[in-house]
DNA sequence: GTATTTGTTTTAAAATTTAGAACAAATACG
DNA sequence: CGTATTTGTTCTAAATTTTAAAACAAATAC
């Protein structure tokens, strides 16, 4: 559709928000809380790989830490292309959610 | 994912915005302009049918009009469940797009 | 060395998206 | 009438995305 899917958008935003802590399991936790719904591991790792392959994300592998089970992590950060894709999806959302007539169904979106 | 897909969201919003003119081809035109990208016919009709089956949309068939080719149209409107689903996706978006740190990449989302 | 924890990869099924052919029914007009 | 054109919906198969969960890997704990 020439626009990020919802999951892709949420993952890119998660990487943005988590900054120096943006790696697979952390992203999964963050999004599970956001969605109030436990995501499977694959639900995060599969799109992460795709987003990287398409140039929306860059990644590098860390050294292991000395915590229990502290393996090497694969960290991600947004590329310029990734920011551009978020920009685009944000524009579409703004358009799509503006100018909605009153339906009398008890709710209207509020853009803080 | 327990949340509307992007296409589902856009179609529900289109039905909302188009009001008394919410039928397949019109929705297609509206979304094609919004996305700046010509959607195929199936890209609209397939999800429309699914959204109806799931109770997000109600529909009824009009009488033909006396315009050239003016066949009976299938009009749609949001159900309460449909409004609720939009409400939910709106909440998730608001959360996901708020509290983003400055990346110094030349852009930050503005919520009008 | 065996258990436990943190982390990534893989895989296959399910669901969604997409393009476009097919079909349907209306008016136009010779 | 018959054929063309327009508006509209249905169908369908391929491509893509999502999802769950098993497998694998590597670290510390004891």
Descriptors:
mainly alpha, two-stranded antiparallel ribbon, 112 residues, homodimer, Arc Repressor Mutant, subunit A, DNA-binding, 2 strands
Description:
The structure is a homodimer. Chain A has about 110 residues and is mainly α. Chain A has a single domain, classed as Arc Repressor Mutant, subunit A, CATH 1.10.10.10. Helices cover about 50% and strands about 10% of the residues of chain A. The first copy, chain A, has helices at about 5-20, 25-35, 40-55, 80-95, and strands at about 55-60, 75-80. In chain A, strands 1-2 form a two-stranded antiparallel ribbon. In chain A, helix 1 (about 5-20) crosses helix 2 (about 25-35), helix 1 packs across helix 3 (about 40-55) and helix 2 (about 25-35) packs across helix 3 (about 40-55). The longest helix of chain A is centred in the last third of the chain and has 17 residues, at about 80-95. The radius of gyration of chain A is 17 Å and the shape is elongated. The mean pLDDT of chain A is about 95. The interface of A and B includes residues 6 and 90 of A. Chain A binds a DNA duplex (30 and 30 nucleotides) through helix 3.
Outline the fold blueprint.
The structure is a homodimer of 112-residue chains.
Chain A: H1 6-18, H2 24-35, H3 42-53, E1 57-61, E2 74-78, H4 80-96
Antiparallel strand pairs in A: 1-2
Helix pairs in contact in A: 1-2, 1-3, 2-3
The first copy, chain A, binds a DNA duplex (30 and 30 nucleotides) through residues 1, 5, 7-8, 23-25, 39-43, 45-47, 49-50, 64-74.
